[in-house]
């Protein structure tokens, strides 16, 4: 069970030395109990205390990493049942399943090229295929190893969907350094796969006829040296899947069985969209999808993005100056806040005008324009400071900045703060009126 703040406080040195950044050990203990800091921030904690607290404060669901390098994916480490209690931390990995029994090597290589390079940016997140789940081809160990290498060469994490121990061993021996996930077929004897995962220290999917069986098998695998596991709940239909995913998460968080404290794996057959949606919304850590059509991925990614944003933090993008089209030094310079929704609406409307421009996105802690202004985050002085910090004022020679119509009240203060002959032009209240604004205000002004 997790320790309370007071229990943790009693184990800390009690010197109030402030090295952790908090004024007292009690304040630090409270933050630690809430999971908002890590124990390593207290340099004077004894090893004994670290061991005690470390075990007590470890996430109830183990973090497991699949793959190596920039595209490696870590799943697990969740601490809550309801997203609004805190947040979900590790977005569901979405893997594309490939069946070499239906495709030639050339076709597979082409698919891999496509899936390795596809990337769609939305609200500050890059949507990509997170990894490839490769089904074992019938009768050719060499081919399995070759195809596994082809995936690794592209830097993508691999799940080896194995039906035979010899087949998966040949692939594992080729790409063991890439930390592939070993996924035995449901119903096979798992003991040789457990031995293989232990030998190469690789993550392994544990299956079972029911949740008790899954948990007991996980404990047994841990005894045999497997540390990183994912659990695959049995489910004959969507209803049972929903129930079992919920039971697994609840059981892990309540630490009712040591075999439940692992991320969850889900394999989904072609056309089982409901299972993918249940998996993303209800605790699946990694979903391997067979033959999911391209048009299904965008909704899946979008759903996942919405589930895995922190409900306590507004969706925001990094402050910077964005070019719309190919603006020169005479192009309009506009300013807005770094609330993602505001940025996407304004940049899309700007793009639609066909007028090349620059959009300075200033740090307003992810608030929309009016909210930021009322909170003192979008005052004339702050906007001026941000425009200078971002170098926005160096891009244009007309020394004019266009502010959102809703905050015309800051124009005087902003002009004073910018100084140096800068002037402030109040733009439209709605981004949809930018086209008319450019036509009726900006262009006559620049031409006249
Ligand atoms: S660093 Fe450790 S001993 Fe010092 S105040 Fe923080 S918790 Fe207490």
Task: Explain how this protein is built.
The protein has 448 residues and is of the alpha/beta class. The protein folds into 3 domains: 53 residues, Electron transport complex subunit B, putative Fe-S cluster (3-methyladenine DNA Glycosylase II, Chain A, domain 3); 244 residues, TIM Barrel (Alpha-Beta Barrel), CATH 3.20.20.20; 128 residues, Rossmann fold (3-Layer(aba) Sandwich). Helix content is 40%, strand content 16%. The protein is built from 16 helices and 17 strands. It has a 6-stranded parallel beta sheet with strand order 8-7-6-3-12-11, covered by helices on one side. Helix 1 crosses helix 2. The model has no long low-confidence stretch (mean pLDDT 92). The structure holds iron/sulfur cluster.
Q: Which spans of ≥5 residues are poorly predicted at pLDDT below 50?
A: none
The secondary-structure class comes to: alpha/beta
Q: Work out the number of β strands.
A: 17
Strand order of the largest sheet: 8-7-6-3-12-11
Output the number of helix runs: 16
What share of residues are in beta strands? 15-25%
Structure, briefly:
The chain is of the alpha/beta class. It is 40% helix and 16% strand. The chain folds into three domains: 5-57, Electron transport complex subunit B, putative Fe-S cluster (3-methyladenine DNA Glycosylase II, Chain A, domain 3, Orthogonal Bundle), CATH 1.10.15.40; 64-307, TIM Barrel (Alpha-Beta Barrel); 320-447, Rossmann fold, CATH 3.40.50.
